[in-house]
Amino acid sequence: MRLGCIFLAPQSLAELDAMAETLDVYGLSAIIAPKTFGDFTEDEAYAYGERARALGLVVGETGLWENFLTDDKELRANRIERFRRLLRNADIAGIRSANTLVGTKHASDRPLFPHAYNFTKECRAEFREIVLRILDGLELKNTKYGIEPWYTTFFYQPEDIMEFIVSVGHPRFGLHMDQGNMISHASFYNTTAMIEKTFALLKDDVVSVHIKDIQWEGAHFGLRWNEVPLGEGTMDIATYLRHITTLDSDMTCYLEHFYEERDYALNFARLHHIARGEGLSFLPRQPLKSERIVTGKFPKG
C-alpha cells in the first residue's frame, strides 16, 4: 500500500520534481492528479504519468466532483463528456482511478446535498444509465471508474454498494473506498465489524482508498459526524490497514480535509505508528532507472 494526501498534489511536471523530497520526508509514494488534468492534452497527460513513475510515484486518483443527477440535460451531457475526457487522460497517464459521487436531485445542484429521490430504486436505475453512458466505448487499460460513498445517497452501505456494482457489471467500475463516509448509527461504535463486512463484500472492487477518523459531536442538536485527527475518533484504523494490505501492493491510500501541512505531518506520523504496531508499512518512493515507460496511450486520430 502507498500513502499520499490531497494537500501535497503536484500540479505540473515542474512541481512533480520539486515536491519529491518533501514526499520522502513523510514516507509518501502516492499523489493525486492535477486539478486541471481533464484539460491536459494527450501528450501532456502521458508526460505527467511517465515522469511520476520515473520518480517512483503512483498517481492513484483523479475525479470530477460535480452533480451528475441534474435534470438539466445540457449540463448533464457536459459533465459526462468532461468526465469521459478525464477518464481518457487518466488512462493515458496510467492513473489508477477516476472518481465521482452519485449526486443529488436537490435544487441547489450541490452533489452532497440530501434528497428523498437519492434513496429510491428510480435513482439507482437512473444513475446506472449515467455510469454506463460514461463508460460506453472507452477501452480503459489502466484506469477504473470509482464511486465514492456518501450517506445522502443509496451508495452508502456495503450491501447496497455491492448490489449497484453488480448491476453495472463493468470490469472497469468499482468502489472509491472511504469507510469514514460509510459510518451509520449501527456501525459508529463497531467500525471493526463495518470494515470487515465491507472488505468481505467489496475487496475485489476497490479502486483507491481514503483514510479518516470520525467523532460524534454530542453538543450539536441532531446528528453530526466530525472529521478529527487519526486516533481521536471511532475508526478502527489498525483493522482498516490490515485489510488494505490484502489488496494489491500499489493500492493508494490518501488523507484529506486538513488545512495545514503540519496537520498532515501529525496524521502521517500517527498512521505510520499504527501501521508499525501491526507489523505493516507503506511502500516508499523508489525512483526508476529509466524514465521511458510504456503506458496504454491512445493512438492519435
From TrEMBL:
Residues 37-261 form the Xylose isomerase-like TIM barrel domain. The keyword Amino-acid biosynthesis does not apply. Keywords: Isomerase. One of its GO terms (molecular function) is isomerase activity. Gene3D superfamilies: Divalent-metal-dependent TIM barrel enzymes (3.20.20.150). InterPro entries: IolE/XylAMocC-like, Xyl_isomerase-like_sf, Xyl_isomerase-like_TIM-brl. It comes from the Bacteria. Pfam families: AP_endonuc_2. Signal peptide: none annotated. This is Sugar phosphate isomerase/epimerase. The lineage of its organism: Bacteria, Pseudomonadati, Pseudomonadota, Alphaproteobacteria, Hyphomicrobiales.
